[in-house]
């Protein structure tokens, strides 16, 4: 979560990979554990039967670190990313139908309309912060409409969800509490006046009283949908555009060949993942990982960002180079195994559509500040720019 590490992440992770596949690390202030940085070992760790989401074996370590994200009633727990076995299957099944490829494809016209509207709003200016003007409101609007979050709450949801993940923010804890309280009030509103949205459906599942959802699981699942449903895509788009601003030749290539954009999204996911470290695993028993003894109760972080940079590539290709024409880039950006991201089809749709609309309507976009001055979200989990100031010429009309 150190700002210097964020700015120099490619070199820092490369050095770690050269030294070995797993390292002792401070994963969170005061919370020590193990960090996996190698692609093959990351795949193994993501599906290891003894590395579970149940934090009880690591309770002492979590308490010593005052680990707010895992405190029931205060943190962000009670959802499928913090569940194992039958509980995970039950919670995942409740929302899986919303994010199928077929259901996601039906959202394509609405995603495109939102993207076009956002570009229209930029047309009267010649400078903008792409995070605030485009990469944040696009996925936030999509997930808010799916969940049924009223317009008047969306700005606060966006602010609080970002700071809930930005553990370096001074108001991190108050943002977690604010997010919890707002979701609770929204659940009460949906219970009183249900609508055709996902939160109303989850409330109905809870109120059927058949053990499908506890109160904590209901709140936790709704919070997860807000955060995972937009924050990762905000940063996928932000990191992609930052990469293009650093390499204008790659931007020109996509502007001239928009058919490359779907494949380029996979390259962006490999090159600069928005999820830097997967949600923590906890050793349910003693085990060996990458040649190291991992005792029961240890906390294990899996650096997806580093693993992706170390993913196997054809001979002669340089993984440190962004190549939007690279075929079939391999990555673990959406995880692996039973916790593979349900929202992957939606994230891909939003990123592909957003980039196509932006690059078509605002060709020749340029950075308005030196790119080494970009501030990063100081989170152990998420990687992305806090802002992307740009300048541009006339905005082209809708095609």
Would you kindly provide a written description of the structure presented here, covering whatever features stand out?
The structure is a single chain. The chain is of the alpha+beta class. 50% of the residues lie in helices and 9% in strands. Strands 1-2-8-5-3 form a five-stranded mixed sheet. A three-stranded antiparallel sheet has the order 4-10-9. Residues 70-75 have low confidence and may be disordered.
Chain-wise SSE layout:
Blueprint: H1 3-7, H2 9-19, E1 22-28, E2 31-36, H3 39-46, E3 51-52, H4 59-64, H5 85-96, H6 101-105, H7 108-122, E4 127-129, H8 130-135, H9 137-147, H10 151-165, H11 172-192, H12 198-207, H13 215-228, H14 231-246, H15 248-256, H16 261-271, E5 281-283, E6 287-289, E7 292-294, E8 299-302, H17 304-309, H18 344-361, E9 366-367, E10 389-391
Parallel strand pairs: 2-8
Antiparallel strand pairs: 1-2, 3-5, 4-10, 5-8, 6-7, 9-10
Helix pairs in contact: 7-9, 7-18, 10-11, 11-13, 14-18, 16-18
């Amino acid at each position: 979560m150190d700002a210097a590490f964020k700015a120099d992440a490619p070199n820092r992770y490369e050095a770690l990979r050269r030294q070995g596949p797993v390292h002792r690390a401070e994963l969170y202030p005061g919370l020590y554990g193990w960090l996996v940085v190698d692609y093959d070992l990351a795949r193994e760790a993501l599906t290891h039967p003894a590395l579970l989401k149940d934090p009880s074996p690591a309770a002492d370590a979590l308490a010593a670190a005052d680990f707010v994200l895992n405190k029931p009633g205060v943190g962000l727990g009670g959802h499928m990313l913090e569940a194992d076995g039958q509980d995970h299957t039950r919670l995942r099944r409740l929302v899986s139908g919303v994010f199928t490829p077929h259901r996601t494809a039906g959202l394509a016209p609405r995603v495109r309309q939102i993207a076009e509207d956002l570009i229209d709003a930029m047309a009267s200016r010649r400078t903008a912060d792409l995070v605030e003007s485009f990469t944040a409101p696009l996925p936030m609007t999509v997930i808010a409409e799916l969940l049924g979050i009223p317009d008047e709450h969306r700005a606060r949801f966006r602010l609080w969800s970002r700071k809930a993940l930005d553990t370096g923010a001074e108001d991190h804890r108050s943002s977690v509490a604010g997010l919890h309280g707002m979701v609770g009030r929204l659940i009460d509103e949906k219970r009183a006046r249900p609508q055709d949205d996902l939160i109303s459906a989850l409330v109905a599942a809870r109120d059927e009283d058949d053990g499908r959802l506890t109160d904590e699981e209901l709140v936790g699942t709704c919070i997860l949908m807000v955060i995972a449903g937009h924050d990762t895509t905000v940063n996928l788009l932000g990191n992609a555009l930052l990469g293009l601003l650093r390499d204008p030749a790659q931007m020109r290539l996509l502007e001239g060949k928009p058919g490359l954009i779907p494949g380029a999204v996979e390259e962006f996911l490999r090159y600069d993942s928005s999820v830097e470290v997967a949600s923590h695993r906890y050793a349910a028993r003693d085990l060996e990982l990458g040649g190291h003894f991992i005792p029961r109760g240890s906390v294990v972080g899996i650096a997806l960002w580093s693993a992706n940079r170390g993913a196997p590539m054809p001979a002669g290709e340089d993984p440190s180079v962004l190549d939007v024409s690279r075929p079939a880039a391999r990555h673990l950006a959406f995880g692996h195994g039973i916790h593979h991201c349900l929202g992957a089809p939606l994230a891909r749709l939003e990123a592909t559509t957003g980039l196509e609309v932006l690059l078509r309507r605002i060709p020749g976009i340029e950075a308005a500040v030196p790119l080494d001055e970009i501030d990063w979200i100081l989170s152990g989990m998420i990687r992305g720019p806090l802002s992307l100031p740009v300048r541009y010429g006339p905005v082209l009309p809708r095609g």
